[in-house]
Amino acid sequence: MSTEKPRPTFQMDGHDVPFDEGQSILAAALAAGRYVPYLCYHPEFQPHGSCKVCTVKINGRTHASCTTPAHEGDVVESNVDELNDMRKGLVQFLFTEGNHFCPSCEASGNCTLQAVGYDLGMTSAHYSPLFPDRPLDASHPEVLLDFNRCILCELCVRASALVDKKSVFSLAGRGIQKHLVVNAESGKLADTELSVDDKAMSVCPVGVILRKRRGFQVPIGERKYDEHPIREVAVQKQKGE
Amino acid sequence: MSPDVKEVKKKLRVATTSLAGCFGCHMSLLDIDERLVPLLDLIELDSSPLTDIKHCGPCDLGLIEGGLCNAENVHKLREFRAHCKILVAVGACAINGGLPAQRNHLDIRECLQTVYLTGLGVERGFIPNDPELPLPLKQVHPLHDVVKIDYFLPGCPPSADAIWQFLTDLIAGRTPKLGHGLIHYD
Ligand code: SF4
Ligand code: SF4
Ligand code: FES
Description:
The complex is a heterodimer of chains A (241) and B (186). Chain A has 241 residues and is of the alpha+beta class. Chain A has two domains: 10-79, Ubiquitin-like (UB roll) (Roll); 100-220, Alpha-Beta Plaits (2-Layer Sandwich). Chain A has helices spanning 25-31, 81-97, 112-119, 155-163, 224-227, 230-238, and strands at residues 9-12, 15-18, 55-58, 61-64, 75-77, 143-145, 169-172, 179-182, 209-211. In chain A, strands 2-1-5-3-4 form a five-stranded mixed sheet, with no helix packed on it. In chain A, strands 6-9 form a two-stranded antiparallel ribbon. The longest helix of chain A has 17 residues, at 81-97. Chain A is globular and about 60 Å long. The two termini of chain A are 30 Å apart. The model of chain A has no long low-confidence stretch (mean pLDDT 96). Chain B is of the alpha/beta class. Chain B has a single domain (3-102, 138-171), classed as NADH:ubiquinone oxidoreductase-like, 20kDa subunit (Rossmann fold, 3-Layer(aba) Sandwich), CATH 3.40.50.700. Helix content of chain B is 32%, strand content 19%. Chain B has seven helices and seven strands. Chain B has helices at residues 3-6, 24-30, 36-42, 71-83, 92-96, 108-118, 160-171, and strands at 12-18, 43-45, 59-65, 68-70, 84-90, 136-141, 151-153. The mean pLDDT of chain B is 94. The chains are: A alpha+beta (241), B alpha/beta (186). The A-B interface holds A 95, 100-105, 108-109, 114, 117-118, 121, 123-126, 128-129, 131-133, 220, 226, 228-229 and B 89, 92, 95-99, 101-102, 104-105, 139, 141-142, 144-145, 149, 151-154, 156, 177-178, 180-181, 183-186.
């Protein structure tokens, strides 16, 4: 018989989920193959806790599961109508705030926002769309920025600052005015050090940061979440498969 | 045909229309192919581009493709809402404005000028102003901006399989549910 101490566990929707000391509820759940919808979390970065799509009830109180460390014996509710309806509402706000015209978006089929919408059974954005005016930045020879689809997750900000050490991106403004900006005097991407091998190029969960001349190389209908629902893909990703 | 669909006796009366759409959703409906035969045992068409009946009578179900880009679209939508017990926004344009709404951040006057006066290859152009033509709206709107919509069937267009699933669910009295592979925004 092994003398190794068994890992502590918490309960999620009636199932035991083992965790390591200091691990978040979300990371532990995903590693155990239990999907919780999320947008701004990324296993390689410190959690940001801003989108709130990963909200669960821990011992009866709501918390963002990506920023809350697990404790032995926690009782967590996640896949219940009340929380899924709240998550759907948040996703609908994001669709309403930006311009998300999926049929012409290069990210369609690979997009986390869209895939979470599918998972939650969202069939419309429900609210009246705001149709904001957000011009593109096509100044860079290799990269196009389409701000219309930004969900303000700060993954590009975090990747560019922490991994690439370039701080190409920032968020500016508050509330509904909050938006992604490029850190250059001109405000243009061409005047930054961004290169196509940067980590910041590969972390955007939606269709903002795009390689030029690569559009529709993989046809719509044959992309990541066309093949498998995000519920399956996300738990594979966490396990590093 | 699924067994629970067979039990329905009275045919449902269904109206369809295309507002600011491209008829792609109607084409996708026709793409259910041989399933049209059992479908026509269950429904009869009222006003629709497929029957050419111009105005909508009392109906059980209205399927609307396309968003609202002009005044006539709004009248048509209200006519459908007044006559259809259940109204469905079919496709991306009906649900969020879609491709036509890509003009929403442009000035409508400049749009018309570019298309009819100054655009590439336009000679002796003029902006059409026949009184018979409906006036364009300042912005393109989804249907739910103007009337209550009971169901949304997303996709550009929704696939034939998604339309079939949706219609057979609805006709059988189930809440329509599109699982993975059938729910698409693109
Ligand atoms: S970013 Fe995602 S949700 Fe937005 S338009 Fe592109 S595919 Fe659709
Ligand atoms: S551009 Fe993409 S990665 Fe950056 S904040 Fe916006 S959604 Fe997030
Ligand atoms: S994933 Fe937890 S708040 Fe966004």
